[in-house]
Amino acid sequence: MVNQVFLCCLFLFTLSLLGIILNRKNLIVTLICIEMALLGVNLNFIIHSIDLDDILGQVYALCIIALGAAESALGLAILICLFKVRGDMTLHSAILLKH
Length: 99
What we know:
Blueprint: H1 2-22, H2 27-52, H3 56-86, H4 91-96
Helix pairs in contact: 1-2, 2-3
């Protein structure tokens, strides 16, 4: 069972990395892909924590969930400010903010 769940975690993580790499326009999709990668890692931590009968993996997963929530809140706040300044939420307009 652990191998099947590990393959599911690997699929989630790989799919999220492909989404980040292939996405060239939408910043919201990039944030969703980052969250999906974090969820794949969390699922891996939790399953191996249950398999090894150790609570440390579940504590790590809880910390990663808190980190992901903070990242989503800050990312969405930055996207709202970007939309107010530029009028769109594309990656190109975010790159233009550096100049």
